[in-house]
Specification:
The protein is mainly β. The chain folds into three domains: about 80 residues, Sandwich (Immunoglobulin-like), CATH 2.60.40.1080; about 170 residues, Immunoglobulin-like (Sandwich); about 100 residues, no CATH class. The chain contains one helix and 37 strands. It has a five-stranded antiparallel sheet with strand order 30-37-36-33-34, with no helix packed on it. Strands 2-9-8-5 form a four-stranded mixed sheet, with no helix packed on it. Strand 6 and strand 7 form a beta hairpin. The longest helix is centred in the last third of the chain and has 4 residues. The radius of gyration is 32 Å and the shape is flat. It starts with about 25 loop residues before the first strand and ends with a strand. The N terminus is likely disordered.
Length: about 375
């Protein structure tokens, strides 16, 4: 008789024992929201990130609400509209989870400034111009809507040309978007002598550190006519904050602060105030090249946690006598300006605390890194900052 033996069957590997426990879902407002500068009249798309029980982001329908719609209102897709100055708390929610963040709404920079004559003779036509500054304070090209408060005294066409019709006072208004500006004009008889004046026709009210902008102005003589031969000169109340070329009006924002730009001709002048704010650029970089010598290396100018300006040079390979590093705004073979950072005594990687040498230096103070031979007073190599 045959016997049947039953052996216990052991199944190996059919049941996973390494499964991880489910994770707790989370919801957070995107970190990028904290980088947004909210200003009145602006609209800003917000986002939140939901991670499921596997720890992976998942697309879900998030609900949005604001603690004060009068300051900051939200639609169902998270598009925020800044309505007034103040602080509001935004809340994103989904499936019982909530994420909140306080939002400060700042005053709008949106504005229009009008340039033109304050006095016009009957029968004369003068072209007025309008500079539009957007929410970020940047000059933007636009075509405003022009209007006159009294067309029997002066008219204005769609291009901004004002024609004096009869003696009197009249308001000319330029409007664009949520911004408008009005200037009052005096229309005088043809025989009246007019006071000469300077009109700053192109300007910026806000600039970022490192930004460059060219200001423009016109001189109007006693006949009410623009004198194209007048040599207008420019100056800044604080060159350390905002420097400007005396002759051509080219300005460079050097540091945070405010400065008054003045355009002058003979005894007549006109001014505009400019606010310089921190730049979004946190570092500047470039590469070295030789001028008659073999020079190699890359460099970065940045700020450390203490706010010191640090120059970092990597893979530095020199070939020349007595090299010194200079930060300079002049890139010439036999002339250098700026500050001497000291002798390059090593190859490879070099770190220099520029602020310890000159505390006034900022990221955009200089445009070149020069490798200079002091004994022979000549340039061995240079690198220009790329940004």
């Amino acid at each position: 008789m045959k016997k049947l033996y039953l052996l216990p069957l052991v199944l190996v590997g059919c049941i996973r024992t390494d499964l991880e426990d489910p994770l707790t879902p989370t919801l957070r407002i995107d970190n990028a929201v904290s980088e947004i500068e909210f200003r009145v009249s602006g609209t800003y798309p917000l986002s939140a990130i939901y991670t499921d029980d596997t720890g992976e982001p998942a697309e879900v329908q998030i609900s949005w609400v604001s603690s004060d719609d009068k300051i900051l209102s939200l639609n169902e897709k998270g598009l925020a509209t800044a309505n007034a100055e103040g602080t509001a708390t935004i809340t994103a929610s989904y499936d019982g989870l909530e994420a909140m963040q306080d939002i400060e709404v700042l005053a709008s920079r949106e504005m229009i400034s009008i340039s033109g004559l304050s006095t016009i003779r009957v029968g004369n036509s003068v072209l007025f111009t309008a500079n539009y500054l957007d929410l970020n304070g940047q000059t933007t090209t636009m075509s405003p809507e022009w209007s006159s408060s009294n067309k029997t005294i002066a008219t204005v066409d769609e291009g901004g040309r004002v024609t004096a019709v009869a003696e009197g006072m009249v308001d000319i208004t330029a409007s664009f978007g949520n911004a408008s500006s009005t200037v009052t004009i005096k229309v005088v008889n043809e025989s009246v002598m007019m006071d000469p004046e300077i009109q700053i026709t192109k300007f910026a009210s806000f600039m970022e550190v490192g930004e460059q902008f060219t200001f423009e102005a016109s001189y109007i003589n006693t006949s009410g006519v623009v004198d194209g031969m007048a040599a207008i000169t420019w100056s800044s109340s604080s060159p350390a904050v905002l420097s400007i070329d005396k002759n051509d009006g080219a300005a460079t924002a050097n540091a945070e602060g405010t400065a008054t730009i003045t355009a002058a001709y003979q005894s007549i002048s006109s001014t505009v105030d400019v606010t310089v704010e921190a730049s979004a650029v946190t570092e500047r970089s470039g590469s070295l090249m030789g001028t008659g010598y073999s020079i190699e290396g890359d460099f970065v100018l940045s700020k450390n946690e203490d706010g010191d300006v640090i120059l970092t040079i990597t893979n530095y390979k020199p070939d020349g006598p007595g090299p010194f590093f200079y930060l300079s705004n002049i890139n010439e073979q036999k002339r250098v300006d700026g500050i001497n950072l000291g002798e390059a005594k090593t190859r490879g990687n070099i770190t220099i605390n520029v602020s310890n040498i000159d505390s006034n230096v900022e990221l955009f103070t200089y445009n070149y890194l020069i490798v200079w031979c002091d004994p022979f007073n000549t340039r061995l190599g240079f690198g220009e900052f790329n940004n």
